[in-house]
Design brief:
Layout (H helix, E strand, L loop, with lengths): L1 E10 L2 E11 L3 E6 L6 H8 L7 E6 L10 H4 E4 L11 H10 L5 H10 L15 H13 L5 E5 L7 H16 L3 E5 L3 H7 L2 E6 L2 E7 H7 L5 H8 L17
Parallel strand pairs: 3-7, 3-8, 5-6, 6-7
Antiparallel strand pairs: 1-2, 1-4, 8-9
Helix pairs in contact: 3-4, 4-5
This protein binds adenosine-5'-triphosphate.
Length: 247
């Protein structure tokens, strides 16, 4: 479970996250949405201890990330699939992660198989396509068999097969009782795989409800329409094509 409570993060005069509160619960895929610069990545980075909150708090299973005894087992993270050392093979990358937690080679092979990377295991990550890099990032997130997963744009760069695979995977993870927090700009995809969505704009909460409830409450025909309506005042860079709710 992820709990974000009155979280504020400032960078100098920029307030990236502004008094944000929400909970991502076990057995649920929570979609995390917002326009560019809304504060999604910053929130996720605070949750996983890469940034320090200016005020408020963010916890995983009731603990701050820094206080988790074995982080890989508590929370699987894919924030930036490109953060892998390009000279390392997929296998070596995962093995190095595994060794920090006493996880064995068998589990490394298991996640390589689960993410469809078996045949690419001995290839250097620097030669991977965007989609293969995403798969490797997801493999790393799954490695510790964590109860919580945080995936930033997991379908970015995936082909239709890959998109379907991620959709099934996150649904399975939630069905196993895990907490999944997933950000994406692909509304159609989120509507298919998320149970509820948390929408933020300019660092503030705009909506936190089941997908259907948000669609109904806004009188929209789709999550995309509801999203455009809810974020219409919170978009910093809007082109003519999207001004006025996409009409
Ligand atoms: N390290 C940093 N230093 C200064 N400002 C930052 C830093 N990181 C983020 N910001 C600012 O904080 C705000 C929120 O950025 P963030 O990356 O969290 O948004 P986001 O919702 O993830 O956006 P996107 O959809 O474009 O990835 C932006 O105004 C951004 O410029």
């Amino acid at each position: 479970m992820i709990e974000v409570e009155a979280l504020t993060k400032r960078y100098g005069s920029t307030t990236a996250v502004d008094g944000l509160t929400f909970t991502a619960r076990p057995g649920t895929v929570t979609g995390f949405l917002g326009p560019n610069g809304a504060g999604k990545s910053t929130t996720m980075r605070v949750v996983v201890g890469l940034e320090r909150a200016t005020s408020g708090r963010a916890t995983v299973d009731g603990r701050r990330f820094a206080d988790l005894p074995a982080p890989l087992h508590a929370v699987g993270i894919m924030l930036d699939a490109r953060s892998v050392h390009p000279g390392r093979t997929a296998y070596a990358h995962l093995l190095a992660m595994a060794q920090t937690h006493g996880i064995g080679k068998a589990r490394v092979r298991e996640v390589l198989a689960q993410t469809g990377l078996e045949s690419a295991a001995r290839r250097r990550a620097g030669t991977f396509s965007l989609g293969m890099g995403q798969r490797l990032g997801i493999a790393g997130a799954l490695l510790g068999d964590p109860a919580t997963l945080i995936l930033d744009e997991p379908v970015n760069g995936l082909d239709p097969d890959g998109v379907l695979w991620v959709r099934r995977l996150v649904r399975e993870l939630a069905a196993e009782g895990r907490t999944v927090l997933l950000s994406s700009h692909l509304m159609h995809e989120l509507a298919l795989c998320a149970d509820r969505v948390v929408i933020i704009g300019r660092g503030r909460l705009l909506a936190d409800a089941p997908v259907q409830e948000i669609v109904d409450r806004t009188g929209s025909g789709s999550l995309e329409e509801a999203y455009l309506q809810l974020t219409s005042d919170a978009v910093e860079y809007r082109t003519d094509a999207t001004a006025g709710g996409g009409r």
